[in-house]
Amino acid sequence: MDTHHHPIPSSSVHYNNQPFLDPHSRVSLFLLLSEYSHAVRITSSHAIHLFCLTNPVPEQPLPLSAPIPPNLREISSLASWTVSSSKPGCSIPQLRSPNTSLFWQSDGPQPHYLNIHFFKLVRIVGLRLYLDFEADESYTPTRIQFLAGSGANDLQEWSEMRLEQPRGWCWVDFSSAPTMPVLRAHLVQVKILENHQNGKDTHLRGLQIFARDNERVGMRKRESAKELAMRGKGTCGGGGTMRSGGIGGKGLGKSSWDVEPVIR
To answer: Where are the annotated segments for Disordered (predicted)?
Structure first.
């Protein structure tokens, strides 16, 4: 059997800054893999690694699958993002992309975590994740913890999600935030503890953090505390189910970092 590895044609690797494989390159890659299937067995992890390397972030953002709720503005771009580990080509730029066909894939031991560090104290009223069980299967998170603080040394858990086959945007429960329904923090950590079928690595296809949009408050009735809290009551799109609520549904109490600053 000929085990000589033939190089993949350059047309199937270089895409002239196009966000996805053009049809000709897709056909070329498919034929090449089919021709040498007797010598090379491609596993699902190899296929995902190939996807990460051959699908850079699109230059033109694609429309979101769900609109931003009224009176909110996304503040994710105001933070510095870091992850515990990632596959090449499947890291923070892919997670931050509006295109939910791209994703962050971890590449290390559990737990996997994402740190979102704001340079000033922010008031967070909403946080949602995009998950897709149908596409990710064993890479799909089933247990996620959410922590917050002024830095890495005083992180405190404020919510936890347990999911079953989620698909779509999943809102985090804010009922256990120290000052429900507003979370004030410099650092938010998303910690993925378990995956479906005990999968090792994880996929996260989107994460957005929201604050009140004060400029739009006058355009419609200001949301009440109850309305703000209900938005994060464990809703999950696509028919997925979840159980949420931090610390058994009990409030955390006000922490030293979750107070209004005093100017002297």
So the answer is: 231-264
Digit-coded pLDDT (tens) for 161-179: 999 999 999 999 888 776 6
DSSP code per residue over the chain: -----PPPPGGGT--TT-SS--HHHHHHHHHHHHHTTTT-PPPHHHHHHHHHHH-PPPSSPPPPSSPPPTTEEE-GGGEEEEES--BTTBSHHHHHSS-TT--EE--SSSPEEEEEEEEEEEEE-EEEEEEEHHHHGGGSEEEEEEEEESSGGG-EEEEEEEEES-EEEEEPP-TTSTBTTBEEEEEEEEEEEEEGGG-SS-EE-EEEEEEE-GGGGGGSPPPPHHHHHHHTSS-BSTT-EEEE-GGGG------TTSS-----
Domains of the chain: 18-54 (no CATH), 72-249 (2.60.120.260)
Give tens-digit pLDDT for 73-101.
Answer: 999 999 999 999 999 999 999 999 999 99
